[in-house]
Write a structure and sequence with these properties.
Pfam family, one: DUF4760
Number of domains: 1
Shape: globular
Structural class: mainly alpha
Radius of gyration: 16 Å
InterPro entries: DUF4760
Strand content: under 5%
Number of helices: 9
Length: 149
């Protein structure tokens, strides 16, 4: 399916609807928890959050599925990708926190995990720029978390 060349009023309507969904109380709380509390430094940290008894598990599932659904719309040409990402890059922040261990995540947790986030991070100008910005933050976080030798 060809991607959209230009955004139109349908794209604007979808972006506004996605914004409304992000403002829902449970989603807002889940987003806040993931952004502030999920800062993995190893695959064990990533694996732990996928377990139902982890305190951030529900928030992780809420956020990861929301962003995968959102980015699927771009991947499948339902919405203009760069237009979407101008105000919906937060999912790439979560993706950047999983990306260092993405192969292990897919092998042990979900073979299709973060496929749509990966697609927008590699197939659009805005996605590449946003993902790179978040990767740099993650690399700095990991460097700061390394024990001094």
């Amino acid at each position: 399916m060809p991607l959209k060349d230009f955004p139109d009023h349908h794209d604007a309507e979808l972006v506004l609807k996605l914004y409304e969904l992000r403002r829902e109380a449970v989603m807002r709380d889940s987003r806040a928890q993931i952004i502030t509390k999920f800062l993995p430094t190893s695959f064990d940290d990533v694996l732990a959050i996928t377990k139902s008894d982890h305190p951030l598990n529900a928030a992780f599932r809420q956020c990861s599925t929301y962003w995968e659904m959102t980015y699927a719309m771009a991947k499948h040409g339902v919405i203009h990708t760069d237009f979407l990402l101008e105000s919906n890059g937060e999912g790439l922040l979560l993706y950047s926190r999983i990306e260092p261990w993405l192969a292990e995540y897919r092998a042990q947790v979900n073979a299709n995990g973060f496929r749509n986030a990966e697609w927008v991070a590699t197939n659009s100008d805005m996605g590449r720029a946003t993902a790179e910005r978040f990767r740099k933050r993650m690399q700095a976080h990991l460097a700061a978390a390394k024990p001094a030798s």
